[in-house]
Amino acid sequence: MIPQSFIADLLNRVDIVDVVGRYVQLKKGGANFMGLCPFHSEKSPSFTVSPTKQFYHCFGCGAHGTSIGFLIEYSGMGFVDAVKDLAQNVGMVVPEADDRIPPAQRAQMQAQSMALSEAMTRACDFYRGQLRGATEAIAYLKNRGLTGEIAARFGMGFAPHGWDNLRAVFPDYEAVVLAEAGLVIDKVDEDGGNRKRYDRFRERIMFPIRNTKGQVIAFGGRVLDHGEPKYLNSPETPLFSKGFELYGLFEARQAIRDAGYVLVTEGYMDVVALAQMGFPQAVATLGTACTTTHVQKLLRQTDNVIFSFDGDKAGRRAARRALEASLPHVSDNKTIKFLFLPTEHDPDSYIRAYGAEAFEQQVHEAMPLSQFLLREASGEHDLSEPEGRARVQFDAKPLLQAMAPSALRLQIVRGLASLTQTTPAEIEGLFELAKPVAVAQRAPPKSGRAMPVGLELQIIRILVAHPPLSLEIDAAGLAAFGHFGAGGAERLAQLVAAGQELGAQGSFAALAQHLKAQGGDYDAIIGEIAASPESDVDSDRAWMVGAIRQLKLDALKLELSQLFAAGLSSDEIGVRYREITSKQDQLLREGEAELSNR
């Protein structure tokens, strides 16, 4: 786990204007910067970036967050990857579980990663340059209906004929990094004596594969004729793992948000052809089955995923594997569908044969996951026979067990029960489904902590906006928060502790990031602060100190009344009475001093 102190330090060092400005065109507008929101479609800018708060906020869709949050939402990175990306840009090293690795070894690992990235970038530039003069390759792409604009957008290139063209690109063709990057292959004689090095990609259309930061991490190469293999991919390298990456995701991010869904295909050419024909929201798996990591990445980008595989048997098998990968991530607010084209077509051939409107219709008629799951389980079993119905249940069991309890799972259970002449409760009992969802249950009791209002809410707003003010709250102040009940006192104590942990340099952005990691309880308050003009910290401090002083006075007054009602002797009352009145006098003098200093 990355320490909170590191996150706070990182957010103090990066500039959110620079981070967001890499992806969104920003213009100065008063104290803030404005631009078109990258998270929803709009014509007038409602997206603001505050350099003082180090926070972004959209007045249109309500999206808001820190530099870390922006990278997570925009690029689809995980939290750790977003932190690493920002840290790298400001020369910070993220503390991890591998801290025991000697500094020299870690430096060597970082140098290797940089060398690999540089080699891939240089090779990509070479292949792109070669495409400009490759008449045969250009003719092939034009024949597939692709324009130069699309080829440039995806950075497509050409690996020419020849065994060692990269020798002219890299000063040291024998460098180890070229083999580590998968750009060359070392062939060793059977006796292990002689080693011959040659380029991995030759006479192929080149598709660079980018990560979420836009860095080239691998290549896919397609033959121009009927050679084998039809597609040749980079091997697994320290930069590239095909089970984690999706072709075209970097290029498609904004289009996915605009369309409201992502199309997942099997091939590079499907992606570029669909983009050419008006469907730039397409991505592709990289010569491997769809994995749970792929599904996670996609659901970070959109709530609607449509798998569009080839219509042949291989495409059907790919769809089944995509179904299995999706099940652990199914939820009631996410929609996953499956588009099945005619047997003889893939998305590329279908859209060229029938046009964009026909393909759009296919997208609208895609099969929901629930229907596909029941169809897969049913197969060709005879539902008129008990044995056939039992086999359907047997095949459906692992699929339903992979799903978390949800309303959608209940609907599928009911559908399966109807098919197999059983009841939902019988299905759930037979399948040993955790937390059955067909059984009527009482709603769990709500937490005793009421939502903050009034004075408590105002104190919370100030502490979130200005975390260093937490350092001015002492034990008596925390005790005075008992005025808001046990739930309110606990909430304020936790917030004060978080602010004090950040210290005098704590920022709104750092605390907001910390609170987001704890859950969404403060999200509405953080959104309000992000949308409001910067408040004056001195005025907020004076108000908060005065409010807490009054809470302390109220607590002392209550204690006095309880003291007189306790039936104690005059001597016992006298000692405590003098202590309480002394504290009251001190608080009143502090208040007068505050007023005179304003």
UniProtKB/TrEMBL annotation:
UniProt cofactor note: Binds 1 zinc ion per monomer.
What UniProt keywords apply to this chain's record, in alphabetical order?
A: DNA replication, DNA-binding, DNA-directed RNA polymerase, Magnesium, Metal-binding, Nucleotidyltransferase, Primosome, Transcription, Transferase, Zinc, Zinc-finger
Q: Which cofactor does it need?
A: Zn(2+)
What InterPro entries does the record tag this protein with?
Answer: DNA_primase_core_N_sf, DNA_primase_DnaB-bd, DNA_primase_DnaG, DNA_primase_Znf_CHC2, DnaG_bac, DNAG_N, DnaG_primase, TOPRIM_DnaG_bac
User: What does the record give as the reaction this protein catalyses?
Assistant: ssDNA + n NTP = ssDNA/pppN(pN)n-1 hybrid + (n-1) diphosphate
Q: Where are the zinc fingers (CHC2-type)?
A: 37-61
Q: What class of enzyme is it?
A: transferase
Give the Toprim domain ranges: 260-342
Identify its protein family.
Belongs to the DnaG primase family.
Q: What job does the chain carry out?
A: RNA polymerase that catalyzes the synthesis of short RNA molecules used as primers for DNA polymerase during DNA replication.
Description of how the protein assembles with itself and partners: Monomer. Interacts with DnaB.
Q: What is this protein called?
A: DNA primase
The species this protein belongs to is Janthinobacterium fluminis
